[in-house]
């Protein structure tokens, strides 16, 4: 997030910069924490969004020091083969029951 930027505005900007898609923020799926090396505390939030415009893959080349090289839609059933945990794949298949909740550590959702 940039200074003075709302969470919704940051999400819309990041999606456009990194994927080329314009989105409308819909519902909060979950909030979790991750404590990394050096006392680093990361708050992880996942939202459901709806595409309202833009072109997939038309990301800004200067938007990130680690640009996304490819974006594709995948079947929910293939999430585990792409490295996602079984727990996370299950949450996706169930439509994120308890959406909008704080779930604690990222490991609670299998990440």
Helix-strand sequence: HEEHE
The average pLDDT is 85
Shape: globular
Helical fraction equals 10-25%
Q: How large a portion of the residues is in β-strands, by DSSP E?
A: 25-35%
Largest sheet: 3 strands, mixed
Q: What is the straight-line distance between the termini? A: 22 Å
Structural class of the helix and strand makeup? alpha+beta
Topology, number of strands: 3
Side-by-side strand order of the widest sheet: 2-1-3
* Assembly status: single chain
Which stretches are low in confidence, meaning pLDDT under 50 for 5 or more residues running?
Answer: none
Indicate the radius of gyration in whole angstroms.
15 Å
Task: Explain this structure.
19% of the residues lie in helices and 32% in strands. It is an alpha+beta fold and 111 residues long. The model has no long low-confidence stretch (mean pLDDT 85). The chain has a three-stranded mixed sheet. The two termini are 22 Å apart. It has helices spanning 7-19, 86-93, and strands spanning 21-36, 40-54, 101-105.
Give a quick precis of the structure.
The protein has 111 residues and is of the alpha+beta class.
Task: Give descriptors for this structure.
2 helices, alpha+beta, single chain
List the helices and strands and how they pair.
Layout: H1 7-19, E1 21-36, E2 40-54, H2 86-93, E3 101-105
Parallel strand pairs: 1-3
Antiparallel strand pairs: 1-2
């Amino acid at each position: 997030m940039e200074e003075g930027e709302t969470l919704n505005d940051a999400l819309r900007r990041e999606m456009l910069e990194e994927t080329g898609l314009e989105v409308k923020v819909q519902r909060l799926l979950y909030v979790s924490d991750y404590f990394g090396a050096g006392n680093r505390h990361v708050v992880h939030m996942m939202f459901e969004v709806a595409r309202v415009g833009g072109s997939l893959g038309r990301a800004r080349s200067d938007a990130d020091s680690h640009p996304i090289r490819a974006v594709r839609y995948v079947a929910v059933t293939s999430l585990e083969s792409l490295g996602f945990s079984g727990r996370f794949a299950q949450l996706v298949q169930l439509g994120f029951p308890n959406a909008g909740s704080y779930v604690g550590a990222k490991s609670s959702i299998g990440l």
